[in-house]
């Protein structure tokens, strides 16, 4: 599993109670956790940790944009979205105990947790299926080229490529 030090929370020295952490998901995050077709990400992460002796309860909110080719015109577009999710950390000395989607089991001696994989999954799950410009904001020249191709007046270079696909 990939890890990123900057998304690691050292919880061992924290008192029981609530703690807040802020992160940003940026180009560096994207290089380590590539997202399908996404060329940039600018996302704020707000983490609220509720700590007790037996449990760590992380409430993570994300809010920001990803940049990728538009589904309609192919030019880059920013898509904004937000979401939140909860990650529970339980401590156990039983190495065979396994976690679930939102539950991680850590050894009693563990003192930190890396949230980057969890944040990555949260972004993937939150990202809208349709990633396109708002209505009317698409690149008109690309749209007209695409629609003229549909009408059969295809650019000769594209037509040639099409012949090769047989
Ligand atoms: Zn577009």
In short:
With 166 residues, this protein is of the alpha+beta class.
Beta content: 35-45%
Biggest sheet statistics? 5 strands, mixed
> What structural class is derived from the secondary structure elements?
alpha+beta
Q: Going across the biggest sheet, name each strand in turn.
A: 2-3-4-5-6
Level of helix content? 10-25%
Radius of gyration (CA) equals 22 Å
| Averaged pLDDT | 88
β-strand number: 7
Order of helices and strands: EEHEEEEEHHH
Low-confidence stretches: none
> Can you count the helices?
4
Any idea what the shape is? elongated
Description:
- It is a single chain.
- With 166 residues, the protein is α+β, with helices and mostly antiparallel strands.
- The protein folds into 2 domains: 5-133, no CATH class; 137-166, no CATH class.
- Helices cover 22% and strands 39% of the residues.
- It contains 4 helices and 7 strands; from the N terminus they run ββαβββββααα.
- It has a 5-stranded mixed beta sheet. A two-stranded antiparallel ribbon has the order 1-7.
- A hairpin with a 6-residue loop joins strand 4 and strand 5.
- The longest helix is centred in the last third of the chain and has 11 residues, at 116-126.
- The chain is elongated and about 70 Å long.
- It starts with 7 loop residues before the first strand and ends with a helix.
- The structure holds zinc ion.
- The site of zinc ion (ZN) has 9 residues, from loops.
- Zinc ion binds next to loops.
């Amino acid at each position: 599993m990939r890890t990123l030090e900057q998304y690691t929370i050292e919880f061992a020295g924290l008192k029981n109670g609530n703690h807040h952490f802020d992160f940003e998901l940026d180009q560096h995050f994207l290089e380590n956790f590539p997202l399908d077709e996404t060329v940039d990400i600018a996302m704020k992460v707000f983490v609220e940790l509720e700590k007790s002796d037996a449990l760590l309860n992380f409430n993570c909110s994300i809010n920001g944009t990803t940049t990728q080719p538009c589904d309609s015109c192919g030019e880059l577009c920013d898509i904004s979205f937000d979401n939140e999710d909860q990650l529970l950390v339980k401590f156990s000395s039983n190495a065979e105990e396994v976690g679930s989607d939102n539950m991680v089991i850590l050894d009693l001696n563990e003192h930190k947790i890396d949230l980057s994989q969890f944040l990555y999954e949260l972004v993937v799950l939150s990202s809208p299926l349709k990633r396109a410009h708002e209505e009317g904001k698409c690149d008109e020249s690309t749209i007209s080229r695409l629609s003229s191709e549909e009408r059969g007046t295809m650019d000769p270079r594209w037509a040639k490529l099409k012949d090769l696909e047989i």
